[in-house]
Amino acid sequence: MPGAINPWPDMNRSLALTAEQVSSYWRDGFLIGVEVLSETELAQINADIDAIADPSHEGREFWYEYSSDLEKTGGIVHGIGGWRVRESLHDLLWHPVITSAFRQLLDAPPRLLFDQLFCKPALQSGAVSWHQDYSYWTYSQPMNHVTCWIALEDADLSNGCVQYIPGSHRWNVLLPRPSRLTSERNSLLGSLTDQQRAAFQPIAAEVRAGSVLFHHPLTIHGSLPNTSPKSRRGTTIHAMADGTRAVLDEPTVDGVPAWLLGGAGPFYPLVDEPAGPVLREPFFPTL
Ligand SMILES: O=C(O)CCC(=O)C(=O)O
């Protein structure tokens, strides 16, 4: 039976990013608008997301985290681990245009760190605070990560598209992490120098459904609330280079969920790897 996502959508198209796309990623810290998904693939993923809106949906036990309670999530339907819940979200991880871009941008074989769903229903709040992704993942070392954000619906400023601060990945800073889903969306600005504040010029990553964004783990990004009558759905794949280790001083670390550690417990780490265990199957598959 064919998978939900066609593994070879168009044999005539080049899978690779162009040299210009790769250099603009390194210059700006992000890349906007690589076309990936067909109408059919989008329809399948969106039908699956419609189905998971029901809190009693089949397979819900496979989420690492899931909440459609907008009161709790600040107006965003948020999930981690969708690849284990629906076939379309699973197959998306191995879309050849995405995996080959990961390989180019990491310059290494990619692995999944985790996937993450961010859906902003129409006319709801739903801001994502300014943040750098790596501030949440410092346990995964060395830092060689890249995120792909996939537009499942058209995204523009009015419905809260992702916004980036160009060049911020080259500021050579790791700023304190804010709570990601919060009304205090500008709290990170308090940690910037005057020079960084002057360079804080957001670019709105407006994209059509089916196109994707890539960003560097130190690029500052966030998004405004959705005040429009249009829903805004996006899902991300956070990838890391093969060989990335979980470097932790303690069996459990505040803010690091147990699933990320492949099953933390009193006997963690289960393997004798002084440098920290390599993040690998089954939770961190190769892409
Ligand atoms: O979907 C959003 O608005 C934010 C996404 C995000 O923070 C991320 O992809 O790291």
UniProtKB/TrEMBL annotation:
Keywords: Dioxygenase, Oxidoreductase. One of its GO terms (molecular function) is iron ion binding. It comes from Nocardia speluncae. It comes from the Bacteria. This is Phytanoyl-CoA dioxygenase family protein. SUPFAM superfamilies: Clavaminate synthase-like. InterPro entries: Phytyl_CoA_dOase-like (IPR008775).
